[in-house]
Design brief:
single chain; 225 residues; alpha+beta; four-stranded antiparallel β-sheet; three-stranded mixed β-sheet; 13 strands; 19% helix; 28% strand
Length: 225
């Protein structure tokens, strides 16, 4: 299949289209020292500001860089709730011939009750919709469900009046790393990255500890097989 458009997570809510492609931390301390330095050409002295960061600052700042990861990179596997037994199951990618892995066949497997199923996704991508009915075969992005069977994600919890979710352990680790960072570096021309698409309530500094607590709850769910 040949893509007719690239996938974008910036689409308005409900967009449908055909496409292919803990304890509070101490505040950092800064010391400003006025240090005279001589200008070689004029012979005059000028004042240079020397900034010294305390060792406490260096250990309390956690930095991360937006490397441009996209949500599609975390769609190879989903941890979901089995519709038959309500236990943890998986939706995994099956090797396909399409050049875009987003459109490869997916297989549902529940090792608890033995239920299996397969689906080949169509060309329709629905992003950030609030509709209750999701058309079969559509790829649904931005909801706490897997993109293909539209089953509830195993890793989801209420947080700040919203639903915080992750597709699997690697996605969860990404969120923990990015949300937990007190210093975030943006890479130019990466406006379609997952980090750039995170909602404000998740990335706001005032919500950091609350969101991290919620992510820890999800990690417990991921660890309890």
């Amino acid at each position: 299949m040949t893509p007719s458009a690239s996938v974008s997570l910036a689409a308005p809510a409900g967009t449908t289209r055909t496409a292919r492609p803990s304890a509070s931390r101490p505040k950092p301390t800064t010391t400003l020292l006025q240090q005279p330095q001589q200008d070689v050409k004029s012979g005059r002295f000028r004042t240079a500001v020397v900034v010294r960061l305390s060792a406490l600052t260096l250990t309390s700042v956690r930095a991360t860089e937006d490397a441009g990861e996209r949500i599609e990179e975390f769609s190879d596997r989903f941890l979901v709730r089995c519709p038959r037994c309500s236990q943890r199951a998986t939706v995994a990618r099956v090797q396909g011939g399409d050049p875009y892995p987003l459109y490869w066949q997916r297989r549902f497997t529940c090792t608890h009750c033995g239920r299996t199923d397969e689906i080949t996704p169509g060309n329709t991508i629905i992003e950030r919709t609030t509709a209750e009915h999701l058309p079969q075969g559509a790829i649904v992005i931005g909801r706490p469900v897997d993109f293909y069977f539209h089953l509830p994600l195993w890793l989801q919890t209420s947080c700040r009046g919203e639903i915080l979710w992750a597709t699997h352990e690697e996605h969860l680790a990404f969120l923990e790393r990015y949300i937990g960072a007190t210093l975030r570096h943006r890479v130019p021309n990466k406006n379609r990255s997952l980090a750039n698409r995170l909602p404000d309530w998740m990335t706001a500094a005032k919500n950091r500890e609350t969101v991290l607590d919620c992510l820890r709850r999800l990690k417990q769910l991921a660890d309890n097989v």
